[in-house]
TrEMBL record:
<dbReference type="GO" id="GO:0005506">
    <property type="term" value="F:iron ion binding"/>
</dbReference>
<keyword id="KW-0812">Transmembrane</keyword>
<dbReference type="InterPro" id="IPR002401">
    <property type="entry name" value="Cyt_P450_E_grp-I"/>
</dbReference>
<dbReference type="GO" id="GO:0016709">
    <property type="term" value="F:oxidoreductase activity, acting on paired donors, with incorporation or reduction of molecular oxygen, NAD(P)H as one donor, and incorporation of one atom of oxygen"/>
</dbReference>
<dbReference type="Pfam" id="PF00067">
    <property type="entry name" value="p450"/>
</dbReference>
<protein>
    <recommendedName>
        <fullName>Cytochrome P450</fullName>
    </recommendedName>
</protein>
<dbReference type="GO" id="GO:0016020">
    <property type="term" value="C:membrane"/>
</dbReference>
<keyword id="KW-0472">Membrane</keyword>
<dbReference type="GO" id="GO:0020037">
    <property type="term" value="F:heme binding"/>
</dbReference>
<keyword id="KW-0479">Metal-binding</keyword>
<dbReference type="InterPro" id="IPR001128">
    <property type="entry name" value="Cyt_P450"/>
</dbReference>
<dbReference type="InterPro" id="IPR036396">
    <property type="entry name" value="Cyt_P450_sf"/>
</dbReference>
<keyword id="KW-1133">Transmembrane helix</keyword>
<dbReference type="InterPro" id="IPR051103">
    <property type="entry name" value="Plant_metabolite_P450s"/>
</dbReference>
Length: 163
């Protein structure tokens, strides 16, 4: 929604305002800003592209999964409809399960942003000190046999009721 006379602070605005204190508060030059913007865009694009490639590879490999998606699309689309509408997306439970399983099985990144511990605590017999930095190994969590039955298998029904 566009609101006339409104200002939206963007990533580029933050780069234009950035000063490097270790270099006498030097501002970034045009080449540095372009490089940082490129990294920002590529980070989102590469992970999305990789996730979609893995999901599509699994859909092609598992014909039964592909068949359920096709049946679901045909069931949601009205007679003669050729286009899926945004308001119908919530009806695609099988497709959502396929995406969720694809992200579980092949996470686009293996670590999420690190977290800071605000107070000491104990986890599985380990003492985590205050101010420690914690990294979560997403892939290891997603492939844990204590949490997932046959974690290395592609089974979207895990994310469906009863699965």
């Amino acid at each position: 929604v566009h609101i006339p006379n409104s200002f939206h602070f963007s990533y580029v605005d933050s780069l234009l305002d950035l000063e490097l204190p270790e270099e006498n508060n030097r501002k970034l030059d045009e080449e540095e800003i372009t490089s940082l913007c490129s990294e920002f865009l590529n980070a989102g694009t590469d992970t999305t592209s990789t996730a979609l490639q893995w999901i599509m590879a699994n859909v092609v490999k598992h014909q039964d999964v592909q068949g359920r998606i096709v049946d679901e699309i045909n069931g949601v689309l009205g007679e003669g409809d050729q286009e899926i509408r945004e308001e119908d997306l919530h009806k695609f439970t099988n497709l959502k399960a396929v995406v969720m399983e694809g992200l579980r099985r092949h996470p686009p990144v293996h670590f999420v942003l690190s977290h800071a511990v605000t107070e000491e605590f104990s986890l599985d017999g380990y003492v985590i000190p205050k101010d420690a930095t914690i990294n979560f190994a997403v892939a290891d969590i997603n492939w844990d046999t204590k949490t997932w039955e046959k974690p290395m298998e592609f089974r979207p029904e895990r994310f469906l009721p009863g699965g």
